[in-house]
Specification:
The protein has 343 residues and is α/β, with parallel strands linked by helices. It has two domains: 181 residues, Medium-chain alcohol dehydrogenases, catalytic domain (Quinone Oxidoreductase, Chain A, domain 1); 125 residues, 3-Layer(aba) Sandwich (Rossmann fold), CATH 3.40.50.720. 22% of the residues lie in helices and 27% in strands. Strands 3, 4, 5, 8, 9, 16 and 17 form a seven-stranded mixed β-sheet that branches. A six-stranded parallel β-sheet has the order 12-11-10-13-14-15, with helices on both faces. It has a two-stranded antiparallel sheet with strand order 1-2. The longest helix has 12 residues.
């Protein structure tokens, strides 16, 4: 798997052999960084709902076998060809870095040349096209690695690399909306709620009906109101952000926003959106999606997070317990984010 050589030191990794099967704990040769890559000793890797979509076959074309994981925090252990470790280079041996979902782009297509590399048709993604961080070591394109703010330890930094970044991009799509609905109060929502409050916005949190614990969590993070997704908010919203992969939430969110409001779908996968009457969309309401992230998103958010300051709520799991962490995420039995620790 990846770039490895005979006789290389071994590492532990959680591997997906086939969709809809559990991950296997195996020993593999430690990968070797190629041109433009760095070898990273993984210190923490967040568990993301996108990982579930990969495991469940809802994202249908992963490399197999695959090491999942795209919220990686680690230290640079080796430099590949054309990666300078000298003064002025991006990273040196021992530099602490974060690796997100977007792992490689061509740099030459119309989208890359116009600052929209997240839409590159040849993009490759960490933990999907490229082996990820459910392992003791991984390799990554140094262009898509980012310094991790010193204010965060490894455990609490990991969720910033996807839940934080995708949440931040989703929030930006809402423009200047002051009354902000958040549907699905999990890892991404608990981070962006703090950013939105820092910006002076009012948060209205929508959870699974009856999920009192998640509603209480939202209130502790400053939500003005929290209730079930089957309950209308006390006043019309300017925008609604959807993180739960449930298509039926789109009409619910359209009902919740006022004229001119927007609904932003922040996930990479969603069940089919049911038919709804045009009157829900009328009066210049809009629906849009978010795709991936850009390096600019990462640089801006990782600079902003410690200024807010964003505090991530996490639950740690040993690497070997990745299947348990994924099961807890699937069932909604997590508050905040799950993070795997190799040691």
């Amino acid at each position: 798997m990846g770039n490895a050589v005979a006789g290389a030191p071994m590492m532990r990794a959680m591997v997906l052999r086939h969709p809809r099967q559990k991950l296997e704990l195996v020993e593999l040769p430690r990968p070797v960084p190629g041109r433009g890559q760095v070898l990273i000793r993984v210190l923490a890797c967040g568990v993301c709902r996108t990982d579930l979509h990969v495991l469940d076959g809802e994202l249908a074309k992963p490399k197999l076998p695959l090491i999942p994981g795209h919220e990686i925090v680690g230290t640079v252990a080796a430099l590949g060809e054309a990666v300078s470790g000298e003064a002025g280079g991006r990273f040196r041996i021992g530099s602490r870095v974060g690796v997100p979902w977007l792992g490689w782009t061509c740099g030459s297509c119309a989208w890359c040349r116009s600052g929209r590399e997240n839409l590159c048709p040849d993009a490759r993604f960490t933990g999907y096209d490229i082996d990820g961080g459910y392992a003791e070591y991984t390799v990554a394109d140094q262009r898509y690695c980012f310094p991790v703010p010193a204010e965060y330890d490894d455990l609490h930094a990991a969720p910033l690399l996807c839940a934080g970044l995708i949440g931040f991009r989703t929030l930006r799509m809402a423009g200047s909306a002051r009354r902000l609905g958040i549907f699905g109060f999990g890892a991404a929502a608990h981070i962006l709620a703090q950013v939105a409050r820092h910006q002076g916005r009012s948060i209205f949190a929508f959870t699974r009906p009856g999920d009192i614990a998640a509603q209480d969590f939202a209130r502790r993070l400053g939500a003005t109101w929290a209730g079930g997704s089957d309950t209308p908010p006390p006043e019309p919203l300017d925008a609604a952000l959807i993180f739960a992969p449930a298509g039926e939430l789109v009409p619910a969110a359209l009902r919740a926003v006022g004229p001119g409001g927007c609904v932003v779908c922040g996930g990479i996968h969603m069940s089919d959106i049911p038919r709804f009457p045009y009157r829900l969309l009328w009066q210049e309401r809009s629906v849009r999606s978010v795709a991936n992230l850009t390096r600019q998103d990462a640089e801006q958010f990782l600079a902003l997070a410690p200024r807010v300051p964003v505090a991530t709520t996490v639950e740690a799991f040993p690497l070997a317990d990745a299947n348990e962490a994924l099961a807890r995420l699937r069932s909604g039995r997590l508050t905040g984010a799950a993070v795997l620790l190799p040691e």
